[in-house]
Amino acid sequence: MTMLQFPQEEPDFQVALSTSLVLFGFDGSDLQILLARSNRPPYEGALFLPSRYLNKEDELMLSARRMFEQLFGYDDPSMIEQLQAFGQVFRHPGGRVVNIAHYALVYKDDFQASQWEEHDMHWVTYHQVPDLAFDHNDIVQYAKERLKRRVKRRPVGFRLLPDEFTLGQLQSLYETALGKTFDKRNFRKKLFKTTLLIDLERKADGLAPGQHKGSQLFTFNREKYEKMKLEGYDFIF
């Protein structure tokens, strides 16, 4: 029996690193996830998460933020969070590749159209993600669980909404992220207790996606939002 050594005398450097982004967006009615279509074998034509291989000098979070910026045209580090490593030995048919995945929350209207067309990127409904290349379905599922925990503890889910929104849109977002159906009256009662909402004293004209004509419009109290985002809270339903 060979004695265990720390570190190994000859480390194996033939291991590649990659990062993938699970991007959550809200179109006014539905929570969605951004996918791309592969143009390389062995998964040519298959859908997968926006991803890139890392060079030896690349820092993990900076690489994820760079990819985010290339897709959406701006850098928003507060909305990107590392998930975990996905490193099953045979997860990539070309060799050993360990994926350090991240997730981010975005406004769906923010994107660089030329980048998306080149890679056939498009949104799919949160609950209808198809079979993906590699182990990207596992990554999506892990990201969904992380989003669920964050929504309960911090108002990060609010980042998915437009500046002006209805309570129906907010409830739809929470129901999708948490996989629950809420009583409208109780949901709104708990929301107003947070003092996060500002009544704009205007009603929706019905033109914006997901906003019904005549519904009251709200926005967030930014000062309280930033404080609660840092300190956390229990938004229990």
List keywords for this structure.
about 240 residues; alpha+beta; Nucleoside Triphosphate Pyrophosphohydrolase; Arc Repressor Mutant, subunit A; 2 domains; seven-stranded mixed β-sheet; two-stranded antiparallel ribbon; about 30% helix; about 25% strand; elongated
How would you sum up this structure, described in words?
The structure is a single chain. The protein has 237 residues and is of the alpha+beta class. It folds into two domains: 16-152, Nucleoside Triphosphate Pyrophosphohydrolase (Alpha-Beta Complex), CATH 3.90.79; 154-231, Orthogonal Bundle (Arc Repressor Mutant, subunit A). The chain is built from six helices and nine strands. The strands form two sheets. Strands 1, 2, 3, 4, 5, 6 and 7 form a seven-stranded mixed beta sheet that branches. Strands 8-9 form a two-stranded antiparallel ribbon. A hairpin with a 4-residue loop joins strand 1 (16-26) and strand 2. It is elongated.
Briefly summarize what is shown.
29% of the residues lie in helices and 24% in strands. It has 237 residues and is α+β, with helices and mostly antiparallel strands.
Topology at a glance:
Elements (H helix, E strand, L loop, with lengths): L15 E11 L4 E7 L9 E2 L2 E3 L6 H13 L7 E7 L10 E11 L5 H6 L3 E4 L10 H18 L13 H12 L5 H10 L3 E7 L12 E5 L1 H10 L6
Parallel strand pairs: 1-6
Antiparallel strand pairs: 1-2, 1-4, 2-3, 2-7, 5-6, 8-9
